[in-house]
Design a protein that fits this description.
Length: about 270
């Protein structure tokens, strides 16, 4: 892993990615924030040593480097998922690369289904905590001591400081921003009625298939992070409709403007 990181970071430097300040991971149907970036470098994942390739149709598979209001951002236009067949270490490798490249904090987004009747389709939820139901952990195996401790603390997986700023921006922009717990499952199938009841009963507000592995690694290597879910469907087990993936993507697309305002607003604030 150490040598792979060195090779990947060196490739980014050769391409002109030298001083990124902020890392961004964009989930399903949420790639339009790229339009806010004054792009300087654009690299396809296949041209970065040891990067996996995104196999999800709605994920572009590019690393974007440029400016937002004078701040250097490094954005993943498309992420990786366990259901694609990748290991947790492969899924989270880009987070370590971004950290080694110099980013100071990480912003993540995802599409999620809501079990909480107060959090409706098309709304945004700031992730305050999570429940990890994925069958593997990116920290399993030999610890990278130079990156972080063997047993990293997860009492505050999402930065309270970043979350507070995002909530303030939401108030200023008149954007409804719910706050709650995200449950991560393996996928790719969606959940049964009984599973939605189980997830809600254990304290989850929304459910998705990503984000948590990246957050675990970010915490391991001392990288503050914040994450927002775009609620793309409602998962009421007593009134469960068949899910249309095209509709999920369409809902995510409609919510992009609000998400972009929040992330861009935070980038502008941070030094």
């Amino acid at each position: 892993m150490k040598n792979q990181l060195i090779e990947a970071v060196q490739k980014l430097k050769e391409k002109g990615i030298t001083k990124p300040q902020i890392g961004i991971v964009l989930g399903t149907g949420l790639g339009n924030l790229i339009e806010e970036i004054d792009i300087q470098v654009e690299i396809e994942y296949k041209n970065i040593p040891h990067f996996p390739l995104s196999t999800v149709e709605t994920h572009s598979g590019k690393l974007i480097y440029g400016d937002i209001s004078g701040k250097k951002v490094l954005a993943m236009q498309g992420r990786f998922h366990y259901y694609e067949g990748y290991s947790m270490k492969q899924i989270t490798f880009p987070v370590r690369v971004m950290k080694q490249s110099g980013i100071k904090y990480l912003l993540l987004s995802n599409a999620a289904g809501s079990m909480n009747p107060r959090i409706r389709k098309g709304s945004l939820m700031l992730i305050d905590d999570h429940i990890n139901l994925l069958p593997d952990n990116p920290l399993r195996g030999s610890n990278l001591d130079e990156q972080g401790p063997r047993f990293p603390d997860m009492s505050e997986p999402y930065s309270p400081q970043l979350n507070e700023k995002l909530e303030k921006i939401a108030d200023e922009e008149n954007i409804t921003l719910h706050k709650g717990v995200y449950a991560a499952v393996a996928g790719p199938n969606l959940e049964t009625r009984a599973e939605y009841r189980y997830l809600r009963g254990m304290g989850a507000d929304v459910v998705g298939m990503s984000t948590v592995p990246e957050v675990i690694v970010a915490n391991h290597c001392g990288l503050p992070c914040a994450a927002i879910s775009v609620v793309t469907d409602e998962c009421d087990p007593d009134n469960l409709a068949k899910v249309n993936i095209e509709e999920i993507i369409e809902t995510a697309n409609k919510a992009q403007a609000k998400l972009t305002k929040l992330f861009v607003g935070l980038v502008k604030q941070r030094t």
